[in-house]
Amino acid sequence: MNIPIMNTKPEVPQAAKIVLVVDDSPDNIMVLKEVLGSEFAIRVATSGPKALEICHGAVKPDIILLDIMMPGMDGYEVCARLKADAETAGIPVIFVTAMTDEQDEAKGLGMGAIDYITKPISPTIVIQRVRNHLELRAARLALEGLSRHYSSYLSPELVEGIRAGSIAGKIGAQRKELTVMFSDIEDFTPKSERLGPEALTLALNSYFEAMARIVAKHRGTLDKFIGDSVMVFFGDPESQGLREDAVACVAMALEMQAQIPLVVEGWKRLGIEESLGIRIGMATGPCTVGNFGSSSQLTYTIFGSTVNLASRLESSGGPGKIVVSERTWELIGADFTGRALAPLSLKGMAQPTSAYEILGAKG
User: Fold this and answer.
1) What is the CATH number of the domain that holds 187?
2) In this structure, are 127 and 198 located in the same domain?
3) Is the dihedral of CA 38, 39, 45, 48 positive or negative?
4) How far apart are CA 120 and CA 323, in angstroms?
């Protein structure tokens, strides 16, 4: 009678992390497979070129155990090539080697390896270090994912400032001279009443997406979307100079107006038969800029009479128009064509306000 041979070795979970063992010694490979094979999916490369081939495949290893002393291409070179390639640079590398000199270890860690284990190995140490580094990598990837997620709620300029440390996570503000732009959609309320919730969401999102791309292109700080309105400022957290910031803001506004027919074409492809015209107002002057709110929730924004003036100028114009303050015109008049408007009586302004309509760029 034939008695089947039972495999008592635990099965590797289907979702197990992939460990790539790179070593030219069959004995060393066998030991590492015995130590790690019950918990991880093991792949093997007996040479440096084969390891690189596996790492550039469709299914990449989650971590690499890499010998140093191998014929042809040694472990140092393999590690250097992995770290120099954006596709593979994020894969953790642990050197597992008989080279015990401290200088060898320092060299390996200096090349980007995350750990250095000397042979003969201790099975408990190897498996625990692999577990620890995989947990650290998972945590790092999760944090990167959260960072990307939360970054979508912020202007790229603000994200860059927070990462660089120029914008601190605490309440505080300063006075700066900025150029501020407001825009809104002409007759938005009746349009929103004609559109159902789904069509309104599609229309607004496609419009805001187009506007946000233009803001990012000109390196403006997208303060917020307010209903159908867009608020952008130039000069913080980065400034190219007061004049240069104002010129960039006007160039952005012109590109926004030029983009509107393309947004309408996109709406038609979505089955939305609505016209679209936006008004834009702009002012340059002192603003209070910084973090406002509570210790648990902050908003990085701007306040001041310049902000109010930009909003009032936007309301005074018609669809397709860009109306700027006298101070803004003084800064950008050499670069753009425009015309002086009759003094405007603006809400909240004691005296009539001088303003200019931008007609286009010179040259």
Assistant:
1) 3.30.70.1230
2) no
3) negative
4) 76
Query: What is the per-residue pLDDT for 227?
Result: 81
- Describe the strand order of the beta sheet including 115-118 as a list of residue ranges: 41-45, 18-22, 63-66, 93-97, 115-118
User: Tell me: the pLDDT tens digits for 179-224?
Assistant: 999 999 998 888 888 888 888 888 888 999 899 899 989 999 888 8
59: which DSSP letter?
A: S
Kindly state whether residue 8 falls inside one of the protein's structural domains. no
Which tokens belong to 103?
A: 């200088």
Query: pLDDT tens-digit profile of 45-103?
Result: 999 999 999 999 999 999 999 999 999 999 999 999 999 999 999 999 999 999 988 89
Phi, psi (5° rounding) for residue 231?
-120, 125
Total tally of structural domains belonging to the chain: 2
185 and 286 share one domain? yes
Q: Give the domain extent around 281.
A: 156-361
Tokens of 312: 């009032």
Rounded CA separation 119/68 (Å): 11
Q: How far, CA to CA in Å, does 331 sit from each of 46, 63, 152, 286, 308?
A: 67, 56, 32, 14, 19
Own/partner contacts of 42-49, CB < 8 Å, gap of 24 or more, are: 42/18, 43/18, 43/19, 44/20, 45/20, 45/21, 46/22, 47/22, 47/71, 47/72, 47/73, 48/22, 48/72, 48/73, 48/74, 48/75, 48/77, 48/78, 49/73
Instruction: Tell me the CATH number at 98.
Output: 3.40.50.2300
